[in-house]
Amino acid sequence: MTIYRRSGDTFNLLYHLLLAFVLMAGVAGCSSDDAPPVDKLEGLEHNYLLLGEWTAQVEGGEEKLYLSADGTGSCIRPEKTESLKWGNIWKEEGEDYGNYLLLEWEDGSVSEKPYRVDGATLEFDGKEYLLDMPILGTWFIHQLEEGNKQNYVFSVNFLPHGQAYIQNFDAMGIVKTASTYSWQRAEDGGICLWVDGREQNLSYHVEGGVLTLDGSGRFTRENPCDFYGDWVSVYSQEGEVVSGKYPYSILDIILYGADDKNHIYISYFTEDGHKGGREFIWNNYNDSLLVLYTDGDTYALNYRFRYDFTKEKFFMELSEEEDFSRYVGYARETTNQ
User: Fold this and answer.
1) What are the tens digits of pLDDT across the range 254-273?
2) Is the distance from CB of 246 to CB of 273 less than 8 angstroms?
3) What distance in Å separates the CA atoms of residue 173 and residue 150, rounded to the nearest whole number?
C-alpha cells in the first residue's frame, strides 16, 4: 500500500531543517569572528634596561629598534619599517637559561631570542645595538658644586659596554688617577655605579652640551688640563714665579701624528739670569711621568694637575722628585679658564 505524506508536513520538515542549519551556522560564525584575539605577549615584563632607541650596523646601513615602556615599538631596516610589540622573560632551567626578548611582528609571528644588556649595548639576534644616550663619552668639570668635600669629580667617561672611568681631585686640588666602575642604567633614568661591591646612584641631565651631575657640578667636553699647547710657569713651592727670572720658563708641548715623534720646546732662564732654550723628544708614561730625550741625554719629570679653589683654575706642576717636595706650577696660555 502506498502512503502519501501531506505537502504541509513536508514543508514544515524542510523549514525546521533549514532553520536549524542557519542557527548553527550563525553560532559558529559568532564563535570565530567575535572571540577576542590571543595576546601572545600577555603577562610579559618590559625591562627598563631595554627601553629606548637602539642602533645596529647591518648590511646596507643601519637597523634601529625602538622599544617603549608600554610594550610597543618599531624596527627600521634599510629595506623596511615595521611596527611591533615586545616583552621579555627570564628562563631559569635547561639549556635556554637566561634573558629572552620576544618581538611580535605585524604578521602576528613572534620571534624569541636571548639578549644581554651592558651599559648602553644590547646584544640580540646576532647583532650589537648601541643605545642613543647623550651621557656617553668623556666629560670634564666646568663648574663645581658648592660645598666642602674630601673629593671632587674632575672627569667622567662612560663607555658603551658598561665601564666608567671617574677621576677625582682632593681637597688640596690634586687630580688623582681615575678609578674604574661598572655602570648600568637605573630604573629612575639615572646611572647606577658599582665598585668593590658598593652601589652608587647618580642622577644627571644633558642639555646644550652641558652635563649636570647631581652633587658633582656641571661638565663639558673641553678638557681644562689638555696636556698639549703652551704652558707658562707662574708659581713654585716657594711662591710666585716672576717673568724673566729663574725658574721662569715656557713649555710648548707638541703632539705630532703617529709617523712622527712628539716634541717639547722649553724656553727658560738660568739662575745667573741667562736665557736659554732646548728642544726635546718626549714620551708620556702613565699620565704622570714625562721623559725627555735629546742628544743622548734623558731627563725624567714627574707631573700632576692641581685645582686652585680660589682662582677656580687648573695648573700643571712639574717636579724632579716623586714626592713633589720641589715643583714649578704652570698655567695654560691657549685656553680661558
Assistant:
1) 887 665 678 899 999 998 88
2) yes
3) 10
